[in-house]
Amino acid sequence: MSGTPRPPLSRRQLLKGSLALAACAGRLRPDWAWAEDSRTRPAPAGEPEITRWALLSDTHVAADPQDHYHAFYPYRNLQEVIAQIACDPPDGLVITGDLARLKGKREDYQNFRTLLTPIDRRPIYLGLGNHDDRDGFFRVFPDRCEHPGIVKNKHITLAQAGPVRMIVLDTLLKVNGLLGRLGDSQRTWLETVLQSCDDRPTILFLHHAPHMNLLDRRRLFEIIKPQGKIKAVVSGHSHRYEYSEVAGIHLISLPSTGYTIWSDAPVGWVDAKLTARGGEFTLHAFEGDCTLDGHTHTLRWRA
Ligand SMILES: [Fe+2]
């Protein structure tokens, strides 16, 4: 399946984006928090409130729609995923980084943004990974700058989605490097937020899986282990679909929508139904190992 990319942004649009970026940079404050309230459908009487989200990762969209890794074509794969999601749109999407192919070129993000068009009326929260570049990203998503970064040089989202709180962190350390890091300022911000917010179940999203290439994972867990409101950490990076648990905190590793290097890993996305008590996570796999396609993993949040 192939698609017709939108024409590139005009010079005027790019200028507007650059000005927004500059204005944003001037407003960055470490103590500034952006909170967005994503409305969800009301629960029927007697039923727990549910919010339904599509969880994606490692889209790896390139400037060239024909770019491929072995037999995997990330551009057409994301096109397929968005078509699947658009058939029954959830309340929103979270995409945990490596949005771009390798170096976060502006043209990568232009294609990426175009591919999201069919569902872009829903909230879409975007994390950044080691194959992203903040400058390229903000040039194509200048609207993200209208909600300026909470921590300087980090792109963070704090949002409420019905019964749960979502926090999308930024582990991008070096473009096209391998390692990730939250950094002192982001960890301090996270700790402050968690100490001051209510006990609503909270899910962290970040690109680097805590057990894989995240330099300050020990300090992250020192912050989140004592905070009972943290129920799960959702990540990408590994291009594997896995569940594990640390101190009662569920660790969910999302598959890539673009490609995988593992013979036993799916390529696809996860449909998540979230309540205050737990979540149901259904895999939609369409390439790679599709053995678990349609399988639902049920998690209960720690007390
Ligand atoms: Fe990746």
List the helices and strands and how they pair.
Elements: H1 11-27, E1 35-38, E2 51-56, H2 74-87, E3 92-96, H3 106-116, E4 124-127, H4 134-140, E5 157-161, E6 164-168, H5 184-196, E7 202-206, H6 217-224, E8 230-235, E9 242-246, E10 249-253, E11 266-274, E12 278-288, E13 296-300
Parallel strand pairs: 1-5, 2-3, 3-4, 6-7, 7-8, 8-10
Antiparallel strand pairs: 2-11, 5-6, 9-10, 11-12, 12-13
Helix pairs in contact: 2-3, 3-4, 5-6
Bound molecules: fe (ii) ion.
Fe (ii) ion is lined by residues 58, 60, 98, 131, 237, 239, 256.
Describe the structure concisely.
With 303 residues, this protein is α/β, with parallel strands linked by helices. The protein is 23% helix and 25% strand. The chain has one domain: Metallo-dependent phosphatases (Purple Acid Phosphatase, chain A, domain 2).
Tally of separate helices: 6
* Rg, nearest Å: 18 Å
Helix content: 10-25%
The distinct ligands, each listed once, are: fe (ii) ion
In the sheet with the most strands, the strands line up as 1-5-6-7-8-10-9
Please state roughly what percent of the residues sit in beta strands, choosing from under 5%, 5-15%, 15-25%, 25-35%, 35-45% or over 45%: 15-25%
Query: What is the number of domains?
Result: 1
* Approximate shape: globular
What would CATH call the architecture?
A: 4-Layer Sandwich
Oligomer status: single chain
Report the structural category.
alpha/beta
Q: In this structure, how is the largest beta sheet organized?
A: 7 strands, mixed
CATH superfamily: Metallo-dependent phosphatases
Unreliable segments of 5+ consecutive residues: 1-34
